[in-house]
Design brief:
By secondary structure, the protein is of the alpha+beta class. 55% of the residues lie in helices and 13% in strands. It is globular and about 70 Å long.
Length: 516
């Protein structure tokens, strides 16, 4: 439907708001909220209604909800004082009170066109998860292996990287001796996940492996031995670990495949895989290289949401680590993230990228909401989990931040960003005045990566507060090496604290460490 009110047109099919013919930029969640309010204008919409419809019943703060209402009002040139179009009904909810005319949105066909086949933009790899084999000899135990397989399949389906074959197809091979190459050919996939479950008394052994069906080789294999104190808890833990291991292995294999192709034959998917290999090296030079590859991918396919999302995230990575200027970088990243969500509003990377823009531009409630949305779409997304931890810390919730950072570490213990997650956990402890633990976590971050700024910042301020001048001098020296532009002014103006007291605490640590 299209809704006409005042000088505005709200198009539900195009997901577009225009005012006097000019498109008004809206974050996808704000668009959904506005569309819902207009469609339900005959009644008062309660807070619970909005949480159910827009946030899928996730727990959100009042500030996050209010920020979305305010954003919708701003888009309509309304505000909380006049409430010309969106009215707050005290203790009841909200109602759209403007006069609205609605009509069905026409979808004219192109001249001479009879049908428009779906465009295949990239050569995304397919992956099939076979039913895990029950090695216990008791058919009553089939449920556990099937449950592990189904959970892995469901979790992989939340990734936007792969085409995941549905259970009804992949489970048809259960109990049959069929070579993986034949399965791959019949299902049209490059990768096969298979495994087994052996249950004896109150213990279970689960094996899993990822196979490249085109070569017949194993890309990854692991074994897990657990006590079955809580069957479902074990199932969830093993699923989480397997999925966290599979994604980077496929990225590495696809990057290797792309590098073996002639440069002239690279498609958008190949370029994205090469860009990711640079992205995870986390250096300024590699991120510049990644951005150039991503721009080439987008030139091939302007609607490639995953490439747009990674491009936005890459630009913001530079801001967070002090490589890029916020004022020039944030608009580029925000435009790319919003474009990614227009292509696919359920892209977790796009929400994480937009959240990182909101974080650095001091929209912390919006940032938390975007990271929460990314994690709802893909609970195994360690990068979004790390960003979420960072935003919680700057929002004045250090205990929640520490727990979120610990979860990021657990999700992906071999993650290239592991040093960053330890640094975030260290900053959370610094905020709680637990300086010795902050120092220990910063040292652990540096052990993983000695060239990242965040850990040296935490080490410097914590050493400053404990009076360890030798440690503070070393941390500052290394910080200046990794971030030459570091200064008290940069810290005061570039980092987005919600509370002035937290900013002053951080600045005080730096002053005591000897930064001017």
């Amino acid at each position: 439907m299209r809704f006409f009110f005042e000088n505005n047109v709200l198009d539900g099919d195009l997901r577009e708001l225009t005012c006097a013919g000019t498109t008004v930029p809206l974050q996808p969640q704000v668009f959904d909220l506005l569309l819902y309010l207009v469609a339900q204008r005959a009644r008062v919409v309660s807070r619970d209604d909005l949480i159910s419809q827009i946030w899928s019943d996730r727990i959100i703060s009042d500030s996050a909800l209010n920020s979305r209402i305010n954003a919708a009002r701003r888009a309509l040139r309304d505000n909380g004082a006049t409430q010309r179009l969106i009215k707050t009904i005290p203790r009841k909810g909200f109602r759209f009170v403007g006069e609205v005319r609605e009509e069905a949105a026409a979808k004219p066909a192109r001249a001479g066109a009879t049908s428009s086949p779906a465009r295949v933009a990239t050569d995304r790899p397919g992956i099939a998860v076979l039913a895990f084999e029950n090695m216990s000899g008791d058919p009553a135990h089939d449920y556990f292996g099937d449950g592990i397989s189904e959970d892995i399949l469901t979790a992989l389906s939340k990734q936007r990287w792969f085409i995941v074959i549905a259970r009804n197809s992949s489970f048809t091979y259960k109990g049959r001796a069929v070579h993986i190459k034949q399965i791959a050919e019949e299902l049209g996939v490059r990768y096969i996940v298979e495994g087994s479950v052996r249950k004896v008394d109150n213990r279970v052994r689960i094996t899993a492996q990822l196979n490249d069906a085109t070569t017949g080789g194993h890309l990854w294999a692991e074994r897990y031995d657990r006590e079955l104190v809580d069957v479902f808890a074990v199932q969830d833990e093993i699923t989480e670990r397997i999925v966290a291991a599979i994604e980077p292995q496929i990225h590495a294999a696809e990057n290797f495949r792309a590098h073996r192709k002639p440069p002239s034959s690279l498609d958008a998917w190949d370029l994205l895989m090469q860009a990711l290999s640079h992205y995870w090296r986390i250096t300024p030079q590699d991120h510049v290289a990644a951005q150039k590859l991503l721009e080439r991918a987008i030139a091939i396919d302007p609607d490639y949401g995953q490439a747009l999302a990674v491009l936005a995230a890459s630009h913001m990575f530079g801001v967070h680590l002090g490589w890029a200027e916020l004022a020039t970088t944030a608009p580029i990243a925000e435009n790319a993230a919003l474009a990614a969500m227009r292509c696919d509003h359920e892209n977790a990377w796009a929400h994480a990228a937009l959240g990182s823009v909101c974080f650095s531009t001091r929209r912390l409630a919006d940032a938390l909401s975007e990271f929460e949305r990314a994690l709802a779409l893909n609970p195994n997304f360690s990068l979004a989990q790390g960003y979420y931890a960072l935003a919680l810390s700057y929002a004045g919730r250090p205990n929640d931040s520490f727990e979120a950072a610990q979860k990021a570490i657990r999700l992906s213990p071999r993650d290239p960003s592991l040093a960053i997650y330890y640094g975030i956990a260290g900053y959370a402890r610094f905020t709680e005045r637990q300086y010795d633990e902050a120092i220990a976590l910063a040292r652990e971050a540096i052990r993983h990566r000695g060239d990242l700024t965040g850990a040296y910042r935490v080490l410097a301020v914590s050493a400053g507060m404990t009076g360890d001048s030798a440690l503070a001098d070393m941390a500052l020296q290394e910080l200046r090496r990794t971030q030459p532009n570091i200064s008290l002014d940069w810290i005061a103006t570039q980092l987005p604290w919600a509370n002035d007291a937290d900013r002053e605490h951080y600045l005080d640590g730096f002053r005591r460490a000897g930064l001017h």
